[in-house]
Write a structure and sequence with these properties.
The protein is α/β, with parallel strands linked by helices. The chain is built from 4 helices and 3 strands; from the N terminus they run βαβαβαα.
């Protein structure tokens, strides 16, 4: 987000961003209250810090919150969002809602959404699995365009 508002060194530009299993939390998305994602964020951002009613209201974890900068100001022209259908840490709906939020924001860039049939970061442990190869090919194509 800051890259959309601030100049980078040597007038560098960020062309694209890859959001692989993005660690966002949104209200009304079913998430394991005792799960890793929720617990970790609760320690990082206690609710009363920043005057929030809930840690999920923080724009640091919820780019769709009222306190967050508009997604229309993303500092790149392309994004790729990858989510795992079997991810037990970040629910699939997080990626879907983020993509919808980006599109609804009026951002004029290109959005690529990829769902893979795997769990959180499965490609690290199963690089020969078909879905891992498909995901890496999608990443490579996105980067090399």
């Amino acid at each position: 987000m800051r890259a959309g508002k601030e100049n980078l060194n040597n007038d560098m530009k960020i062309i694209g961003s890859i959001f692989a299993y993005p660690y966002f939390l949104f209200p009304n998305v079913e998430i394991d209250e005792e799960g890793l994602a929720n617990k970790v964020w609760g320690y990082i951002c206690p609710p009363l810090e920043f005057g929030l009613l809930s840690p999920i209201d923080s724009p640091l974890i919820n780019p769709l919150s009222e306190k967050a900068q508009s997604l229309s100001e993303l500092g790149c022209s392309r994004i790729l969002v990858c989510m795992g259908k079997k991810d037990d840490i970040i629910p699939l709906e997080i990626g879907v809602r983020f993509v919808e939020g980006v599109k609804e924001s009026g951002w004029e860039g290109e959005v690529v959404y990829l769902e893979v049939d795997g769990g959180h970061s499965f490609q690290m442990y199963q690089p020969e699995y078909y879905e891992a190869k498909r995901m890496m090919k999608c990443y490579a194509n996105f980067i090399h365009r």
